[in-house]
Specification:
Helices cover 21% and strands 25% of the residues. With 355 residues, it is an alpha+beta fold. The strands form five sheets. Strands 5, 6, 7, 9, 14, 16, 19 and 20 form an eight-stranded antiparallel beta sheet that branches. The chain has a four-stranded antiparallel beta sheet with strand order 1-2-3-4. A four-stranded antiparallel beta sheet has the order 8-15-10-13, with no helix packed on it. The longest helix is centred in the middle third of the chain and has 24 residues, at 128-151. The termini are far apart. The relative contact order is 0.16. The structure holds 2-oxoglutaric acid (AKG). It comes from Streptantibioticus silvisoli. Keywords: Dioxygenase, Oxidoreductase.
Length: 355
């Protein structure tokens, strides 16, 4: 028998996405007026099903991460399908708000996948000549970094993953990339009418770099008051399980920001691999678009060449960083640096940027 807890209909109704079964189902379970009374006892099990006591067929069944978190927090019930979630202390009330009501670039199927799984892949988003130009310029940027490391005799760092923060500040091609129509339209579909670039970086994983980049959420670095930002991970070289592609925990975005620990390679949300993780291989020029709350990691690069990617993160205009000062007070500051976090969509209309 699975692990279970007995509770009441009133308690399960406190879950933000709870939906009572339809009248026909409720009647079939013997409630002749078709209504489940608040004080009706129900049993919730670790497969995230809700039963009436003694009934074999469940009243409801919901495998989503936010229901798992609710069961964990309200009933002390650890589900079989998800890792233990530990909320970020400032994340007290996150509820996933479905996006993509009137999509411009995503198909209905992609909108559904994004809301349910937290990511979509867009194949061949960049044309070949732009991809080559972008990669060439980022390579030159990385070559400078490598030379400096060599000069300093820092041979260990040469073998590790390397990040170049905000190349858009220096490189026009990265700025041009970040405002491509596909990103303006994605901003509209996944955020709304007013969208800014929030972050950009290149990520190079050298040949035979065996260190995975650990599980984290992109919101796990700086707490912000809007958690449904999105990240675009663009492959500059083919990325698959042998070359260090992304792995994601599909559906894990719905719990909002979790507590992260510090590690050598950045913030970590899960100490070990969660079950149900899947790889997201993408070929050069294609990209994974994912919710900033989606737990993800990248694996080892077993090949003899560098895996290269560039990442862009988008947020709504007006988003704030929230921090807690040493006296325990919450402080709020605008998340955007207006010079580099330019606005690419205003009132739903692409802005005319001179970049
Ligand atoms: O591209 C990688 O290897 C990992 C980058 C990443 O997930 C991040 O910086 O958030």
């Amino acid at each position: 028998m699975s692990n279970f807890r007995t509770t009441s209909v009133a308690q399960v109704r406190r879950f933000a996405h709870w939906q009572d079964p339809g009248e026909a189902v409720t009647r079939a379970f013997g409630f002749t007026d078709g209504v489940l009374p608040d004080d009706q006892q129900v049993v919730v099990d670790d497969e995230l099903r809700v039963h009436l006591p003694g009934k074999r067929v469940p009243l409801a069944s919901d495998r989503r991460s936010d229901w798992a978190l609710f069961c964990q927090e309200h009933f002390g019930l650890q589900s079989r399908f998800w890792p233990r979630f530990d909320r970020h202390p400032l994340n007290t009330d996150f509820v996933w708000n479905p996006v993509g009501a009137d999509p411009r670039v995503l198909s209905e199927a992609e909108v559904t996948q994004y809301n349910e799984q937290g990511y979509v892949v867009i194949e061949d988003a960049l044309d070949q000549s732009f991809l080559e130009q972008l990669t060439g310029e980022l390579d030159a940027h990385d070559a400078d970094r490598l030379k400096t490391l060599e000069r300093k005799g820092n041979t260990e760092a040469l073998k590790k993953i390397s990040f170049s923060a905000q190349p858009s500040r220096q490189m026009r091609t990265v700025r041009q990339l970040s405002v491509l129509p596909v990103f303006q339209h994605l901003g509209h579909d996944l955020i709304g009418p007013d969208v800014r670039l929030y972050w950009d970086q290149s990520v190079y994983k050298p040949a035979r770099c065996t260190d995975p980049f650990p599980w984290h959420q992109d919101t796990g670095y700086t707490y912000v008051d809007y958690q449904q930002c999105f990240t675009v991970w663009i492959a500059l070289t083919d990325a698959n399980v042998d070359t260090g592609c992304l792995w994601v925990l599909p559906g894990g975005h719905r719990v909002g920001t979790l507590r992260h620990a510090k590690s050598e390679y950045g913030n970590v949300v899960f100490g070990e691999d969660p079950g149900n993780m899947i790889p997201v291989p993408v070929r050069a020029g294609s990209m994974a678009v994912f919710a900033a709350t989606l737990p993800h990691m990248t694996g080892a690069n077993k090949r003899g060449w560098t895996r290269k990617a560039v990442m862009l993160e988008y947020a709504p205009d007006g988003m704030n960083r929230i921090a807690v000062d040493p006296w325990g007070n919450r402080t709020k500051t605008p998340a955007a640096y207006l010079d580099s976090h330019y606005q690419l969509l205003r009132d739903g209309v692409p802005t005319s940027l001179s970049i």
